[in-house]
Amino acid sequence: DALFMAPPVYAALSKMTKDPKYVTFMQKEIEECTDSLYDRNEHLYYRDCSKRVLREPNGAKQFWARGNGWVLAAFPLILENLPEEYLKRDYYIRLYKEMAARILQTQDAQGSWHASLLDPDSYPSPETSSTALITYGLAYGLNHHLLDTSYLPVVRKAWKALTSTVDQNGKVGWVQPIGADPKKVTREMTAVYGVGAFLMAGTEIIKLIE
Predict the structure, then answer these.
(1) What DSSP designation does 39 have?
(2) Which of 25, 35, 112, 203 has a CA-to-CA distance to 186 between 20 and 30 Å?
(3) Set 1, 48, 108, 181: catalytic member
C-alpha cells in the first residue's frame, strides 16, 4: 500500500508545482522498491523482503493479493500525473502490463481473486479488497487503451463478482482485515479500504460501460 499512497502524491506535486524534483525522488524510490520486491519471473510483488523466502502450502511463492492490488491500482494514479513526455513513463507502462497479464491468470471462475494469488485453494473464499483494486487497475487499462479487449470479459466477470459481495443492507463483505500476508476471510468481514476500493472500481466500470 506504500506504493499506492506515496508515488501518486509525488507525481501530483510535480504536476501542480511544475517542479521535477518530486518525480525524480519518486522514480528513485520506486526503482529501489521494485528491485527489492518485484519478482521478474512471476511479474508480481512480494509484500516485503521477508516474504521472498516464504512458500504457501502448495509450494508456490507467497504473493499477497491485496498487496499486488495496491500496486496495480497505483500505476493509473501515477500515469495520470506524469507528463506524456516523461522519459521513464514507459517504465510504469511496462510494469503495469506485466502485472496485468500475470494477475489475469489468477482470477477464479466466478471472477474474484483470493488472498494468496498463487495458492487460492488454501484461501478458498473470495477476497473483496484485492478484487476491487485489481478490477480498478484493469478497467483503467481498458479505458485508456493500455490493455486490449481480451481483458474486457475478465473485468466484467470481476465486477459481477464484486457486486455479489454486497448484502441486502449494503454491506460489502469478504474483506480481509488489516494485515501483512494472506489470511482466510468470511462474508461478515468488512473494512473501509475494501469499500473504498469497491467505489474506485465502480468509477472505471462506469466509464467502461459508456
Answers:
(1) E
(2) 203
(3) 1
Angle in degrees, 0-180, between the axes of helices 128-143 and 65-81, rounded to the nearest 10 = 30
CB 127 within 8 A of CB 176: yes
Amino acid of residue 44: L
Other beta carbons within 10 angstroms of residue 94's beta carbon come to 10
- What are 175's three cell numbers? 474483506
Instruction: Check: pTM over 0.70? Answer yes or no.
Output: yes
**What distances in angstroms separate CA 132 from CA 122, 145, 146, 208, one per listed residue?**
21, 20, 19, 15
Instruction: Round to whole Å and give the CA distance between 159 and 29.
Output: 33
Q: Is 165 exposed, middle or buried (0-12, 13-18, 19+ CB in 10 A)?
A: buried
C-alpha cell at 23: 518525480
H or E element that contains 37: helix 21-37
Question: In this structure, what C-alpha cell is assigned to residue 16?
Answer: 501542480
- What's residue 29's pLDDT? 97
Instruction: Name the residue among 147, 152, 162, 149 with its Cα closest to residue 195.
Output: 162
H or E segment to which residue 127 belongs: none
90 catalytic per annotation: no
The cell 468481514 sits on which residue?
189
Bridge partner residues of 166 (DSSP):
172
